[in-house]
Amino acid sequence: MLFHLFLTILFFTISLEGCVRMIPPEEVTISSTAATVPTHEPSRPSPEVSTEATTVQTEAPTSNEPPVTMAPPVTETPTHPCTTCDYAKIKVTPAGTGAVFETQEQAGPDGCKQVTVTCKRTDDTRCAQISIDATGSSGSIGSIGNAVETTEAEATLICQSDGTYSSVFVDGITEISCTSTNCIKLCNTCDIASIAPLMIPPKRNYVAEPETDSLCLEYFSQCRLNDYTQSCSIIQLLAETTAGAEPVVISETTNLFFAAAAISCGNDGTFYSDTVTGITRLSCFYGSCTDD
């Protein structure tokens, strides 16, 4: 009985001592934050990112469409006033019967617009003078192109910064005209003496007799002997031409005292005979003559 009481007291004493030890010393204080219960969920490590999900496709999808090429931006160049002239605004007086105006537009060395104006004969005539005249903004009239013994004349108009055409002598051109003086048909301008043979042997002769009933110049040209009673086994009238080849025989006779052919002036102002054109020189050949 006493033994049980002793064990009970001993056990109680030991338990009390343990409780005393659990009481913290006065210097030790427990932080209020330590006792604070967190109100949010603790952070969790982010899930591992799958490399398959983040892989970027680098190969272009297969397509039959051609690649699109982006054009570079277009930069507009400011327009210079000397490129804005309009030739159509100039009044053109008709060149008259047998003549026309022709124009050709181009850019000059400085980039300014230019127009070459030509007054040309179309009736196969050659004129002592052809003149292109222009009226300026002041009302004055002056010659801007002139040629003599010709079939055409030309002038150059240059566009100015005020948008009007000018020439060397007339500014602000508003009107142009053409005058032809003393024009004759080209087929009446040939000079028969210019194609005559250069050398005539003794006892021989060259004669060019004009045909009076022709509208154009035409000559009956002959290589002949002075003595009509004599003859040659062969006589030839030959022509050199602009083709530059060997002389062409345009007439040939045998056992006679002459050889002749019609030499005509063409619409281009050069001589021709039948199908031989562009004659520049005649010559005579005499072979085995009785008066040698």
From TrEMBL:
Keywords: Signal
The keyword Signal is assigned to this record: yes
Compositionally biased tracts (Polar residues): 48-66
Record Pfam families: DUF281 (PF03436)
Signal peptide start and end residues: 1-22
Region annotated Disordered, chain positions: 33-76
Domain DUF281, chain residue ranges per copy: 110-165
Keyword Ligase in annotation: no
InterPro entries cross-referenced by the UniProt entry: DUF281
PANTHER family cross-referenced by the UniProt entry: C6 DOMAIN-CONTAINING PROTEIN-RELATED (PTHR36517:SF1), PROTEIN CBG25732 (PTHR36517)
Protein name: DUF281 domain-containing protein
Species of origin: Caenorhabditis remanei (Caenorhabditis vulgaris)
